[in-house]
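Extended Data, panel c. Modelled sequence:
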Amino acid sequence: MKKSIAIAVSIITLLFGANFIQANTSKIKTTTIEDFNSGELQGVYDAYFTVKDALIKSDSKLTSAKAKDLLTAISAVKIDKLKSNEQTVWKKVMKKLNADAKSISATTDLKKQRDTFKSLSKNTYDLMKVLKSEQIVYKQYCPMADADWLSKEKAVKNPYYGSSMLTCGNVVETIK
């Protein structure tokens, strides 16, 4: 009987300990993501990913609208709040990002949007490389389009061909 009680107490203690560790781990992960999301460039990154997602859907009107959101995010960046290494890269790519976003937003020609997205992805990648975060971003490559893009998901969803070749491509780099 004493062994049974001791075993039951041990199991209960173990379960409570595991729940405590899991709860604290969840808090740490949430804090890390919130810290990353509070960055000055987060709006630009989020808007980039919505443009990519619209291209995956092959929805040129949605892509145009999301590119306008990207323009807004670009203009909202306060350069003086960026770290020095972010400022350096931002100064190099800001005009190109702005021009690409304007070009994509100004047309509903999906082919033109996708062609311009190549440059947008390259410049966003350059900017993403200076950011140190816990969020993993994948650089993916499509040999058919000879172009890269960034994704928050490891699974390939090709913005250059949409549903016609949705999984064409592969992960070429993991950015942490």
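The longest helix spans residues 2-37. This feature is highlighted in the accompanying rendering.
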